[in-house]
Amino acid sequence: MPAEASTSRPATPPLTERQEARRRRILRASAQLASRGGFDAVQMREVAESSQVALGTLYRYFPSKVHLLVATMQDQLEHMHGTLRKKPPAGDTAAERVAVTLMRAFRALQREPHLADAMVRALTFADRSVSPEVDQVSRQTTAIILDAIGLEDPGPEQLSAVRVIEHTWHSALITWLSGRASIAQVKIDIETVCRLIDLAEPSGRP
After folding, report:
1. Membrane-spanning regions, if any (predicted)?
2. Cα 193 from chain centroid?
C-alpha cells in the first residue's frame, strides 16, 4: 500500500451538501484518470487539480490513493445498482437472475478495463485502514445480489451463499483482468456459483 496512507482515522460526522458535492467531484476525477491510464494514472495531486480542491483537503477525504480508488469502486457500483433497478433481470429462478445481474455488472466494467483494473488493484492492496471503504463495496455488492434475488430478509445460509458469490465475482474480475480467463469462462463460473442461491432457499420459498 502507498506510503502516504494513514493507519487509522477518527469517525467523521455526516457530510454537508457542499462537502458531498466536493466528494463527488473527487470521485469523478478519480474515475476519469483511472479510465485513461489505470492505477498508476491516479495521482493524488492530479486528482486534486482535476476536482478543484486543495491537496490537503483531498487527503482529509481520502488518506491515500487506495482509499480513493476503493471508494470509487463503491461509487461505480452504486451507479450500476441504480441502472440495474431500472431494468430488473429476467429469469425463472433466483440463481438465473443473480447470474444475469452480475454478468451485466461485469460487462459494464469490461467497457472500462483501465478503471476496472485500478479499482480491483486497490481492493487487493487495501489493508485494515481501508476497511470502511472495503465494507461499503461489499455492502453495495450484497445489495445488488439481494435485489436480483428479490429478497429483503435473507437467512444465514442465504447470506453465506451471497458471500461466496461475491468472492467468486471478485476473483473472476481479477482473473479476467490478468488475461487468465475469457468472458465465456467468467460466465460459466458466475452461473455455477449462483446455483448456491437456489440450494440455500428455504423450503416453500419460490
Report:
1. none
2. 19
pLDDT digits (tens, 9 = 90+) for 114-159: 999 999 999 999 999 999 999 999 999 999 999 999 888 889 999 9
198 contacts 151 by C-beta, under 8 angstroms: no
Beta carbons of 42 and 65 less than 8 angstroms apart: yes
Domain boundaries, the chain: 65-196
Give the DSSP per-residue string, 24-38. Answer: HHHHHHHHHHHHHH-
DSSP 3-state assignment of 136? helix
Q: Cβ neighbours of residue 81 under 8 Å, at least 6 residues apart?
A: 140, 143, 144, 147
* Contact (CB, 8 A) for 42 and 34: yes
Instruction: List Cβ neighbours of 153 (8 Å cut-off, separation of 6 or more).
Output: none
In Å, the largest CA–CA distance within the chain is 57
Grid cell listed for 188: 460459466
Query: Is the entire prediction scored with pTM above 0.70?
Result: yes
What CA–CA distance (Å, rounded) separates 193 from 177?
Answer: 20
Exposure string of 16-50, with b = 16+ CB inside 10 Å and e = fewer, is eeeeeebbeebbebbbebbbeebbebbebeebbee
